[in-house]
Amino acid sequence: MYNLNKKQKIILGILVAIVAGFVCYYVYAKDEGANTVNLESDLAIQEEMTGQEEEQHSDDRILVHISGAVNKEGIVELKIGSRIADAIDKAGGIKEDADIEEINLAYLLEDGMKIKIPNKQEKDKQSDTVQEENIENYVTTSIGVSNVSKEEEKSKDMKSEKVNINTATQTELETLPGIGPSTAMKIITYRKEKGKFMKKEEIKEVSGIGESKYNKIKDLIVAK
User: Fold this and answer.
1) Beta strands 74-79 and 139-140: pairing type?
2) Which listed residue, of 16, 57, 82, 207, carries a Cα 20 to 30 Å from 38's Cα?
């Protein structure tokens, strides 16, 4: 066809190599751009899914402050529907001197609650009456509220509305002065086993509610 000399063949070879290089670069750049777009899209989807999972995770969790006779005091994260027993496990269990005899380990927790697990020394220092009232109030719903101030707070809140002891839930019963998780459950159990209270004075038949405690709540309750 054409007879090319050595120099022309070299020049032609260089031109072919340059063209081939441009073609390869164009194809590679196009694929790389597509891969970059796909990678960015995948990352965006992953970030969105992660954000949704984290939001869903936080909606299923509650934070509870646990202190006292446990191995690791502080704030613990629990699933919704957790009980005091779950909080204790999360806190590394109880110490040897812990006194959980009067603690309702099945008590249902809510976000923001504080739990104090008493020890035997605290129990020994208290009289029988004071001991009974304090141990039942080791679950509080407000930060920094002591057992004493909580009792005062309950009395103030209940002045405007009385609790019907025949229909009140455990949470509603615990708003009464001196009525903690354990006694509230006893009241509910009494209702189930023996029926409605015909008059409010009958609440004294519930174990743990003596004349002293009744006098504190008699003006705050009704039986109807």
Assistant:
1) unpaired
2) 57
